[in-house]
Write the structure tokens for this entry.
Amino acid sequence: NQTANPPDPFMTAYVMYGLTEAKLTGNHVNSVAYKKGLDAVENLLKKDMPQDVRVLCLYVLTRADRAPLSIIMALYKDRETMSSYSLAQMSLALWESGKHAEAKVCCDILLKRKTDDGGTMTHWNSWVRYYQEENDLPVDTTAMVLRALLKVYPKRPECGKAAYWLLNRRTGERWESTRDTAAAAIALSEFLGETG
């Protein structure tokens, strides 16, 4: 008699993040499976989980037009304690929900957390907690912050500096991991779309 493992909140949210990005860029995603996945992410918001996972769930639902504004605003109150990665996702969720002033507040906090590298590059470090341990995700975080800045402050010099930093983190034609590669590719694509 096999017992099914309970769903992993982070993996569920992360897979749905990938599927949502794929869907939004015109790729075919099975609609029945996609809806079930979004339903699972909505149910996860009712459970206790690390803040970084909760914000990721909320960001996924925002991208899919299913995030309740009340939950976004409740999480917004905790913006000062969020990792830079989650704060960038929160800024994007707020912006896409029409809360532009609040999105700017999140980006203002992010701008204070930046690390300048020699005047031509900027990046963000972020210790993100998905399970018990924290993970340092500088490429993923810088990519997500760049995406937030492109929405809120597209003319800020940090946008170009972050893009340059991401390009300089490549090894050959890719970044260290598939996750970093995907995050950087999306952010740089959006940067090129904004700047021409």
